[in-house]
Design a protein that fits this description.
Layout lengths: L1 H33 L8 H8 L4 E10 L6 H4 L8 E6 L5 E12 L2 H7 L4 H11 L7 E6 L12 E3 L4 E5 L10 H19 L3 H7 L11 H7 L8 E10 L5 E4 L2 H15 L5 E10 L8 E3 L4 E4 L8 H5 L12 E7 L8 E3 L11 E4 L3 E5 L14 E4 L2 H13 L25 E3 L9 H32 L7 H23 L2 H19 L12 H41 L1
Parallel strand pairs: 1-3, 1-4, 4-6, 5-17, 7-9, 7-12, 8-16, 11-13, 12-15
Antiparallel strand pairs: 2-3, 5-6, 10-11, 14-15
Helix pairs in contact: 1-15, 2-12, 4-5, 7-8, 7-12, 9-11, 12-13, 12-14, 13-14
């Protein structure tokens, strides 16, 4: 009898020990080894980014030439205050603009530069004296009698970051400095709207985050015609020869790119990286059959049919799967002998002077006629050397600045530079060989910086919300590192924007958008490591249940025997 009790106690002790090991060690160990790994993310900082309010700051210097201010007025320059301007972009985001304006008189060397015969020469001389940093502007105030500006011009905007402002005739000696600045303020504000960041540019850059309203429909529609900000772009020039039997086409695309396109891309290098390639496609036909116009003795393409031209041609352009960067396509189409000459007509049935058209966020197509080379004695195939200056003039206009279109209002540069219409009394210098003025580049850098910050903020915030809602997605260390890098770069970009350091702000914003996209599109987030809890129990319960049933029955039996012993003892006492 004693032996049976000892064996029973030993069995109970063994069952309790096994149960204790399973509950205390086994279950936590199993839970720990099967839980989803989630590295730490700066959630608090990401939440603060969602409520981000941007402030753009620009340094403006107003320099008075000899004969514009008196010595008494010069003494008050240090007392003048910085000008601030605020704009409400939408109900949730307040965007503040700040112009830190400083006043001084021109130095002796600047006076010599302002004595040049023309405003263009003065602009070049002032640039050689000192180069203003990105985003900064210098406005030189010249007297009314200055010969730099024509009589009907009050403001001259140069190729760099300088402007010449003529002092009005009514501002004679004897006026106070406050009166002088009040007289100049409207013109200076116009100069800033043309040369510095503008509400239109920034609103367009934030178009994805702004609610569409009657007041900004045109701005948002205009922004949709430009490529969104990207670290790099692919530019492809294609020569379409639909009839190789009629003509052999020769184009010096390499020399043309080096002469006409590369200077602009070099100027745009702070904004993005560019790669260029070219190709020649034979037997490539347009998707629309031209119609013969007997009144013109030529074939025509109507504006309504141009939308159907691109798709069939695009299938022949090749795949750009090797790169995720946006692609800008520029096509030169030489009609075959049976459909020459070929002209593009606008909605008014008038020929387009450039014989080209532009497709938003895609590129442009130019029709190049060679019908003058055809004649009764022509030998086929005819050798044709394409005039690359004419072709690149059209493509450069499509790439760089406004293009005259017939079914759209004047559009922005494919890459996003806003082409401003100067106010009355303004004279803008030609852009030169680079095709882009320094202040135009600054405007693009302002809008790209803001767009990059907004895009990276949206990406990081969306990723954080996704990871918070789905707790079983694995967060690897490299994802956490990219998220932290993006948050740090965003904070630095915002700080540099507020400080007016445009170059650093753009660089940090590019780093932020790259890091945020690498984190958001990391393959591990969509891998099989996504392991919901219901699947975890469905897999492991068939494994653990056969082992746990005997342990559970033993424990229940011990509990039942313990209750029975308590009842027996209670019965004996009674």
């Amino acid at each position: 009898m004693a032996t049976t009790e000892v064996e029973r106690s030993r069995g109970q002790l063994a069952a309790m020990s096994i149960a204790a090991v399973v509950i205390i060690v086994g279950v936590p160990l199993w839970w720990r080894t099967t839980e989803t790994y989630r590295a730490w993310l700066p959630v608090t900082q990401i939440t603060e980014l969602a409520k981000l309010q941007l402030q753009l700051s620009a340094d403006v210097e107003v320099v008075f030439a000899r004969g514009t201010v008196t010595p008494e007025q010069q003494k008050k320059f240090p007392l003048m205050q910085t000008q601030d301007e605020e704009h409400e972009v939408d109900e949730n985001t307040a965007l503040r603009y700040r112009y830190e304006t400083k006043y001084r008189t021109a130095t002796i060397m600047e006076e010599d530069a302002l004595n040049q015969p023309t405003a263009a020469d003065a602009d070049l001389s002032l640039h050689t004296l000192s180069e203003s940093p990105c985003g900064a502007l210098v406005v030189y105030v010249v007297p009314e009698s200055s010969s730099l500006l024509p009589q009907d011009v009050d403001v001259y905007i140069g190729q760099r970051r300088t402007a010449l402002l003529r002092l009005g005739a009514q501002m004679r000696v004897g006026r106070t400095l406050e009166q002088l600045l009040a007289h100049m303020e409207p013109r200076i504000k116009q100069v800033l709207k043309v040369m510095s960041f503008s509400h239109t540019d920034i609103t367009a850059a934030l178009s994805d985050r702004i609610r569409l309203s009657p007041g900004n429909k045109e701005t948002i529609a205009d922004s949709m015609r430009a490529f969104k900000s990207s670290p790099g772009y692919e530019i492809t020039f294609s020569l379409l020869n639909p009839d190789p039997k009629s003509h052999r086409l020769h184009w010096d695309i390499e020399g043309a790119v080096r002469t006409y396109i590369q200077p602009l891309l070099t100027k745009l290098s702070p904004v993005a990286n560019f790669s260029i390639d070219s190709q020649t496609l034979y037997y490539a036909m347009l998707g629309v059959n031209p119609r013969f116009d007997s009144s013109r003795s030529s074939y025509t393409l109507n504006a309504d049919s141009l939308a159907h031209v691109i798709n069939p041609v695009e299938a022949r352009l090749g795949s750009n799967a090797a790169s995720s960067n946006p692609v800008l396509n520029f096509l030169l189409y030489v009609p075959d002998a049976l459909h020459s000459p070929l002209y593009i007509l606008d909605h008014k049935k008038e020929e387009v002077s450039s014989n080209a058209f532009h497709s938003p966020r895609w590129g442009g197509i130019m029709v190049y006629n060679v019908h003058d080379l055809y004649g009764p004695q022509s030998a086929f195939p005819a050798d044709i050397n394409i005039n690359m200056a004419k072709v690149m003039g059209v493509f450069l206009a499509q790439l760089r600045r406004r293009v005259t279109l017939w079914w759209l209002s004047p559009v922005r540069l494919l890459l996003g530079v806003q082409a401003s219409s100067p106010p009355p009394g303004f004279l803008m210098a030609p852009c030169g060989s680079t095709g882009l003025a320094d202040w135009e580049l600054d405007r693009l850098m302002w809008s790209r910086s803001v767009e990059n910050v907004a895009t990276a903020t949206t990406t990081i915030t969306s990723l954080a919300q996704l990871l918070d809602q789905i707790g079983n997605i694995v967060i690897n260390d490299n994802i956490a590192e990219q998220v932290s890098s993006a948050v740090t770069s965003l904070q630095l970009a915002v700080a540099e924007l507020e400080a007016g350091n445009l170059g650093f702000a753009l660089q940090y914003s590019k780093e932020a958008i790259l890091a945020s996209e690498r984190a958001f599109f990391d393959p591990s987030l969509l891998h099989l490591l996504y392991f919901p809890d219901d699947q975890k129990f469905a897999i492991y319960i068939p494994l653990f249940l056969p082992m746990c049933v005997p342990i559970l029955l033993s424990v229940l039996k011990m509990v039942s025997e313990a209750r029975q012993r308590r009842r027996d003892k209670q019965a004996k006492k009674d």
